[in-house]
Amino acid sequence: MAPKAVMLPVLLSFLLLPLSSMALTQDFCVADLSCSDTPAGYPCKASVGAGDFYYHGLASAGNTSNIIKAAVTPAFVGQFPGVNGLGISAARLDIAVGGVVPFHTHPAGSELLFVTQGTIAAGFVSSSSNTVFTKTLYAGDIMVFPQGLLHYQYNAGPSTAVALVAFSSPNPGLQITDYALFANNLPSAIVEKVTFLDDAQVKKLKSVLGGSG
């Protein structure tokens, strides 16, 4: 083997050593929210205290007086700076009777849902074969939703359902499919073409969800 080919992996190893050392020696990096987020997370805040590692925002129920009768209260890095760089975050999910969290994805993280109250029907669709995995969850049950896969939850019981959610990212992202299609200004003709829906259906959904075009 040529000397250059032998030296290349050795050189790369030395280049990576400082990065792995930083990851091992830095206990935490509380987000400085006055700066911009980056693919590597927020820059570290200079001065931190116990309050940076504490968040009370999930103690109260979210407002479910909306079209989907559900509320997601996040504890992502934007609300809870202490999770910056730790690869975790959380949220609270409240679903009123008849409520639904429509098909959506979290592009940057997997989700672990823990039902604390009520009954939730949930499922996700695999990307390789469009296989659907569904389950009815009761208080004490958990279900995992792999990163980036379309999934849903709805209230399948006679009372309000509540769940706590953990994510494998400080900023997992959230994109609801219905809103992505119908709550924007993408021309109806294009939406009709890519969804196979007729003009009346598209315009109705745009009207309901606040879209235009």
From TrEMBL:
Domain of life: Eukaryota
SS bond partners: 29-44
Alphabetized CDD domains for the sequence: cupin_OxOx (cd02241)
Residues bound to Mn(2+): 104, 106, 111, 151
Signal peptide: 1-23
Subcellular location: Secreted, Extracellular space, Apoplast
UniProt keyword list: Apoplast, Disulfide bond, Manganese, Metal-binding, Secreted, Signal
Annotated Gene Ontology cellular component terms: apoplast
Ligand binding (oxalate): 106, 111
One of the record's GO molecular function terms: manganese ion binding
All residue ranges annotated as the Cupin type-1 domain in the record: 56-203
PANTHER family: GERMIN-LIKE PROTEIN SUBFAMILY 3 MEMBER 3
Function as written in the Swiss-Prot or TrEMBL entry: May play a role in plant defense. Probably has no oxalate oxidase activity even if the active site is conserved.
Family of the protein in this entry: Belongs to the germin family.
Quaternary structure (record): Oligomer (believed to be a pentamer but probably hexamer).
Name of the molecule in the record: Cupin type-1 domain-containing protein
